[in-house]
Design goal:
mainly beta, 2 domains, three-stranded antiparallel beta sheet, 11 strands, 0% helix, disordered N terminus
């Protein structure tokens, strides 16, 4: 934001910092200041947004940043929690001083990125288990691993579905384990064959 007394100049120096960074941008009175290209922000990172007012005048409210503020995914920390917020400098360098937790009314225009929807994937451990013909019912064949691509824990249900279902009752699911169904036909008569099951996961 620029104050009315600083509106006669066509450009100002604008800062948005995680590390030292500066750009030159147009400054209309009391309106939005745009960088030449958008700045990509990293999550959980503190940035400082500021402008250089060569006429030395600016809008301010003492104690405006005594408390923290939040708007959507962005938050402004309380001044005392970060060693001083509402920073400024009386030079063309990067602002690094604070006074009475003052708010200088420098805001940011923020557009969240659109993330792809999370995907649910299924895998098995071991991925291709080998089952001896003598394996008894209730034996664990593999662990079923259901995972969301964004890291969200899977809390839904596992089951059987088409086309193979539970191989005509040969297998069952106990928790996240694929087991030989103790009430099924077993595997003793199916030696040297490949058995297939289709696992479904719903949440």
């Amino acid at each position: 934001m620029a104050t009315p007394s600083n509106c006669s100049r066509p450009t100002d120096h604008c800062w948005l910092r995680q590390k030292a960074w500066k750009d030159t941008c147009a400054v209309p009175c009391w309106e939005q200041v745009n960088f030449r290209s958008p700045v990509i922000l990293a999550a959980n990172t503190t940035y400082i947004a500021a402008y250089y007012a060569s006429n030395g005048r600016y809008a301010t409210d003492n104690s405006g940043l005594t408390n923290g503020h939040s708007a959507g995914p962005l938050s402004v920390p309380a001044s005392d929690t970060v060693g001083g917020n509402g920073v400024y400098t009386y030079s063309t360098g990067f602002p690094n001083q604070s006074w009475h937790n003052s708010d200088y009314y420098v805001d940011v225009a923020f557009t969240p990125t659109t993330s792809a929807p999370a995907r649910l994937t299924l895998s098995f451990d071991p991925s291709s288990p080998s089952i001896a013909a003598s394996t008894a019912g209730d034996t664990v064949v593999a662990t079923i691993i259901a995972a969301w691509s964004d890291g969200t824990p899977f809390t839904g249900n596992l089951g059987f579905g088409p086309p193979f279902y539970n191989d005509a009752g040969t297998f069952a699911i106990s928790g996240n384990k694929l087991i030989i169904d103790p009430a099924g036909p077993g595997v003793s008569a199916r030696g040297a064959t490949m058995r297939n099951v289709t696992i479904t996961a719903t949440q």
